[in-house]
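Hi everyone,

Forwarding the result from last night's run.
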Amino acid sequence: MKEVINMKRSTFYYALVGVMSAVAFALYYLEMPVAFLFPAAPYLKIDFSDVPAIFTGVIAGPIAGVLVQLLKNIMHISITKEPALSGEIANFAAGVALMLPAVFAFRKDFKKYGVIGLIAGTLSATLVMVLVNLFITMPLYGIPQEVRWNLIVTVFTPFNLLRGAILSVVVLLLYPSMKSLIKRYENKL
């Protein structure tokens, strides 16, 4: 009997991760261009694909959220035309860094720690993206060393703070309507 319950939980877990990865992948393409704010980097866009990963992490744990981030980016790699993969690396790193503090806070006590977790996630993602941009994406694109810190300070840091703030607001707006679903599905795991 215990094996049947574990199999049902396992099936639910993988189904949840699969469905939410597909939703995140679809949301990856609902991009909001922000070139008017950051003309030095017109390729920067904000998408909402991290939101399903956050909710998956809240329901099924942080590893499930990381899996959603990973699968979403693997699916994106499979159909993208960019050979460098720098966008997917950056998206994965920023998404995981934003998601983990938020998930831990939400799972502990949303009312007390939810906003703090999202702020911590935004700051964490911003810091991680400083490192990813300095050591991975900018070298891949051959951006000269002397220009990198200027771009970090004037473009990438403000962009990641804005991105985190927008995604945090979306999560906070959706959470009340998702709360009953989260409670119901948490009990299945």
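The chain has one domain: 2-186.

Cheers,
N.
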